[in-house]
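#struct-help
A.M.: can someone run this one for me? Single chain, 336 residues.
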Amino acid sequence: MPDALDNRPAAATHRRAAALWLTLAATGGAARPIRTSGDHPSRVVVPVPPGTSPDVAARLLAEGLSRRHGRPLAVDNRAGADGAVGAAAFARARPGEALFFGMADLLTVAPLAGDPLPYDPAADFAPVSTAATDFFVLSVPSAMPARTLDAFVAHARARPPGELSWAGPARTAAYPAFRAFLRSAGLEMAFVPYRGGPQALLDLAEGRIQAVVSTLAAALGAARGGGKVRMLATAARARAPAAPELPTAAEAGFPGFWVEGLLGLFGWRGMPEAARDSLSEQAREVLADPAVAGRFAAAGMLARGSTPAAFAAEIAEHRARWAALAREFGVGPPPG
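D.P.: on it. Structure tokens below:
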């Protein structure tokens, strides 16, 4: 999803992510490659550019795993084609050569677009552990009178259909989720495509568009940087540690508006079950460390590990939800 809004933090968040990256780079120099039951992955493929929230999460987890094994687990950024470049690079790697850290959307949403994929979403990725929830939020211009989600709905209902516009990351779960929210609220808003988040948030700040769905990391930088963007609610099941004052959509009276960025660690096709279980246990130990959880929270995410079976079940839940919504709304605007 390198072109998606949620992977383009605003300037303030870029600075925090860059500082975090430098810290990780500085602390990882004395490490050695991770070992898992006879296999020796020395890198983790990440399908997004450095500085994005999945990249930051991958580096935090890789650092913790490296410390436990005394060798570095290098982060290998392979961005492009909405994450497909990195996913394909991992699928082509020799078994045991690499791990994969990425967004479940690559396995649940990308296949729904109908385009040929250079990887097999059902077979090439062995779920190891969840790593984090990447929060999505709805933001509006501060000049808009609406200060809550229900006030935004009332404001939009008072305008002619299609007069207001919104932006969000197409080809991710956020697109059908917000389309479903608009329908349930009885709203019609025009979708405006952007190649990246910064320009959309800049246009939001200037009132050229009226709503943006983005990750919390991106919205925090815009909302706290110049005061021209107001966050209304998260679309997650729980409040975000980085913005505890922000209600969830369910708390605001719209429980159907739910979408979370599911980030996790994957092994290779045919990864031995014992190796997967061992690595999952190690990942859960890293993610349960309060210091690590605090660094995830500072980056706008919620650290959380799981067993391989629980991760696979969560992926299946996401797949079913987005498949149902994609039949109605697609995963992006129609071509042309």
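A.M.: thanks! Residues 135-258 form a domain with the D-Maltodextrin-Binding Protein; domain 2 fold (CATH 3.40.190.10).
D.P.: also worth noting: The two ends are 20 Å apart (CA to CA).
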